[in-house]
Amino acid sequence: MLTRSGTIVAVCISRERGERKSSVASAACRVDYGIEGDAHAGPGIRQVSFLAMKDIREMEALGIELQPGDFAENIIVDSDVLDAIQPGDMLQVEGGPAFIVTQIGKDCHNDNCPIKIKTGTCVMPERGVFTRVITSGTIQPGQHITQNP
Fold first, then answer.
1. What is the pLDDT along the chain (149 residues), one digit of tens a residue?
2. What fold characterizes domain 4-148?
3. Does the model's pTM come out above 0.85?
4. Burial of 117 by CB count in 10 Å (0-12 exposed, 13-18 middle, 19+ buried)?
Protein backbone atom coordinates (compact mmCIF):
# COMPACT_ATOMS: atom_id res chain seq x y z
CA MET A 1 0.00 0.00 0.00
CA LEU A 2 1.19 3.48 -0.86
CA THR A 3 1.49 5.95 1.98
CA ARG A 4 1.23 9.59 0.92
CA SER A 5 2.44 12.53 2.97
CA GLY A 6 2.67 16.29 2.92
CA THR A 7 2.70 19.42 4.99
CA ILE A 8 -0.12 21.49 6.43
CA VAL A 9 -0.11 24.91 4.75
CA ALA A 10 -2.96 26.60 6.64
CA VAL A 11 -5.52 25.98 9.39
CA CYS A 12 -8.75 27.99 9.06
CA ILE A 13 -11.84 28.52 11.20
CA SER A 14 -14.94 30.70 11.19
CA ARG A 15 -17.13 31.74 14.11
CA GLU A 16 -20.33 31.77 12.04
CA ARG A 17 -21.70 29.43 9.39
CA GLY A 18 -21.93 30.92 5.91
CA GLU A 19 -18.82 33.07 6.16
CA ARG A 20 -15.32 32.48 4.81
CA LYS A 21 -12.86 31.00 7.25
CA SER A 22 -9.73 32.81 8.45
CA SER A 23 -6.24 31.42 9.04
CA VAL A 24 -5.18 30.80 12.62
CA ALA A 25 -1.75 29.98 14.08
CA SER A 26 -3.03 26.73 15.60
CA ALA A 27 -6.26 25.01 16.58
CA ALA A 28 -7.35 22.26 18.95
CA CYS A 29 -9.12 19.27 17.41
CA ARG A 30 -11.37 17.25 19.68
CA VAL A 31 -12.54 13.65 19.14
CA ASP A 32 -16.01 13.40 17.59
CA TYR A 33 -16.36 17.19 17.65
CA GLY A 34 -13.98 18.89 15.21
CA ILE A 35 -11.97 22.08 15.58
CA GLU A 36 -12.73 24.06 18.71
CA GLY A 37 -14.01 27.53 17.83
CA ASP A 38 -15.14 26.58 14.32
CA ALA A 39 -18.80 27.09 13.40
CA HIS A 40 -18.96 23.64 11.76
CA ALA A 41 -17.72 21.76 14.82
CA GLY A 42 -20.03 19.25 16.45
CA PRO A 43 -21.13 15.66 16.05
CA GLY A 44 -21.44 14.34 12.52
CA ILE A 45 -19.42 13.09 9.59
CA ARG A 46 -18.11 16.44 8.27
CA GLN A 47 -16.31 17.80 11.33
CA VAL A 48 -13.11 18.95 9.58
CA SER A 49 -12.60 19.66 5.87
CA PHE A 50 -9.37 19.38 3.89
CA LEU A 51 -8.39 20.84 0.51
CA ALA A 52 -5.20 20.45 -1.52
CA MET A 53 -3.14 23.55 -2.30
CA LYS A 54 -2.93 22.48 -5.95
CA ASP A 55 -6.74 22.68 -6.20
CA ILE A 56 -6.64 26.25 -4.90
CA ARG A 57 -3.89 27.12 -7.41
CA GLU A 58 -6.03 25.65 -10.19
CA MET A 59 -8.83 28.05 -9.24
CA GLU A 60 -6.38 30.96 -9.06
CA ALA A 61 -5.32 30.12 -12.63
CA LEU A 62 -8.90 31.01 -13.63
CA GLY A 63 -8.13 34.58 -12.60
CA ILE A 64 -9.45 34.88 -9.06
CA GLU A 65 -7.52 35.92 -5.98
CA LEU A 66 -7.96 33.56 -3.06
CA GLN A 67 -7.04 33.51 0.59
CA PRO A 68 -6.91 30.44 2.86
CA GLY A 69 -10.44 29.66 3.99
CA ASP A 70 -12.24 31.12 0.95
CA PHE A 71 -13.73 27.70 0.14
CA ALA A 72 -14.71 27.24 3.83
CA GLU A 73 -11.98 24.60 4.11
CA ASN A 74 -10.41 23.99 7.51
CA ILE A 75 -7.06 22.50 6.50
CA ILE A 76 -4.98 23.17 3.38
CA VAL A 77 -2.26 20.64 2.54
CA ASP A 78 0.46 20.54 -0.08
CA SER A 79 1.75 17.60 -2.16
CA ASP A 80 -0.22 14.50 -3.13
CA VAL A 81 -1.53 13.54 0.30
CA LEU A 82 -5.19 13.88 -0.79
CA ASP A 83 -4.83 12.61 -4.38
CA ALA A 84 -6.11 9.05 -3.99
CA ILE A 85 -7.83 9.32 -0.63
CA GLN A 86 -11.05 7.38 -0.05
CA PRO A 87 -13.66 7.19 2.70
CA GLY A 88 -12.28 5.01 5.49
CA ASP A 89 -8.67 6.18 4.99
CA MET A 90 -6.90 7.86 7.88
CA LEU A 91 -4.99 11.14 8.01
CA GLN A 92 -2.43 11.38 10.83
CA VAL A 93 -0.80 14.68 11.80
CA GLU A 94 2.67 14.20 13.25
CA GLY A 95 2.45 15.11 16.93
CA GLY A 96 -1.21 16.03 16.50
CA PRO A 97 -4.70 14.75 15.77
CA ALA A 98 -5.87 11.92 13.53
CA PHE A 99 -8.86 11.95 11.21
CA ILE A 100 -10.93 9.32 9.40
CA VAL A 101 -12.15 10.28 5.93
CA THR A 102 -15.95 10.14 5.79
CA GLN A 103 -16.80 11.82 2.50
CA ILE A 104 -15.25 13.18 -0.70
CA GLY A 105 -17.04 16.22 -2.07
CA LYS A 106 -20.40 17.60 -1.02
CA ASP A 107 -23.51 19.24 -2.37
CA CYS A 108 -23.09 22.97 -2.76
CA HIS A 109 -25.43 24.66 -0.27
CA ASN A 110 -25.31 28.10 -1.83
CA ASP A 111 -26.21 28.82 -5.46
CA ASN A 112 -24.96 32.36 -4.86
CA CYS A 113 -21.41 31.22 -4.06
CA PRO A 114 -19.23 34.13 -5.29
CA ILE A 115 -16.45 31.84 -6.51
CA LYS A 116 -18.85 29.61 -8.45
CA ILE A 117 -20.54 32.65 -9.98
CA LYS A 118 -17.21 34.13 -11.08
CA THR A 119 -15.57 30.95 -12.39
CA GLY A 120 -18.50 28.66 -13.14
CA THR A 121 -17.06 26.03 -10.81
CA CYS A 122 -15.96 25.34 -7.24
CA VAL A 123 -13.55 22.71 -5.95
CA MET A 124 -15.19 21.69 -2.66
CA PRO A 125 -18.17 19.84 -4.18
CA GLU A 126 -15.77 17.55 -6.08
CA ARG A 127 -12.44 17.66 -4.26
CA GLY A 128 -13.14 18.63 -0.68
CA VAL A 129 -12.20 15.90 1.79
CA PHE A 130 -14.41 15.64 4.85
CA THR A 131 -13.36 13.91 8.03
CA ARG A 132 -14.22 13.04 11.61
CA VAL A 133 -11.66 13.55 14.39
CA ILE A 134 -10.60 10.20 15.89
CA THR A 135 -7.65 11.39 18.02
CA SER A 136 -7.53 14.80 19.71
CA GLY A 137 -4.59 17.15 19.34
CA THR A 138 -3.34 20.52 18.18
CA ILE A 139 -2.90 21.27 14.49
CA GLN A 140 -0.85 24.07 12.93
CA PRO A 141 0.84 25.03 9.66
CA GLY A 142 4.15 23.28 9.06
CA GLN A 143 3.13 19.95 10.61
CA HIS A 144 3.70 16.80 8.60
CA ILE A 145 0.58 14.82 7.63
CA THR A 146 0.38 11.23 6.40
CA GLN A 147 -2.45 9.42 4.63
CA ASN A 148 -2.77 5.72 5.44
CA PRO A 149 -5.26 3.64 3.46
1. 567 899 999 999 998 876 778 999 999 999 999 999 999 899 999 999 999 999 888 888 877 788 888 788 899 999 888 988 999 999 999 999 999 999 998 766 666 665 666 556 677 767 889 999 999 999 999 999 999 86
2. M1 Pyruvate Kinase; Domain 3 (2.40.33)
3. yes
4. exposed
